[in-house]
Amino acid sequence: MVNKAENANQNKAVAESATGPFPTDKATSIKELRTFIGVSHGHIFKMMRNGELPPSIKLGARRVFDPIDLNAWWAARKSVA
Q: Is the distance from CB of 48 to CB of 12 less than 8 angstroms?
């Protein structure tokens, strides 16, 4: 018998596999990305310089990421690990 926690985890995995962890209705900010993956602001910029993240988009003073690119990047990282 599957308990509620296991069922919730399965539902979350199915939802993430279909769309990825980043919502596609708006661009993802650096702050949102660093909070999600758990690294510092400086480390995000280091990853950007080293080409470890998808290209970002400059909107005025903000730099954001296309969530579709981030979801593809996330899926590729999951398959490597």
A: no
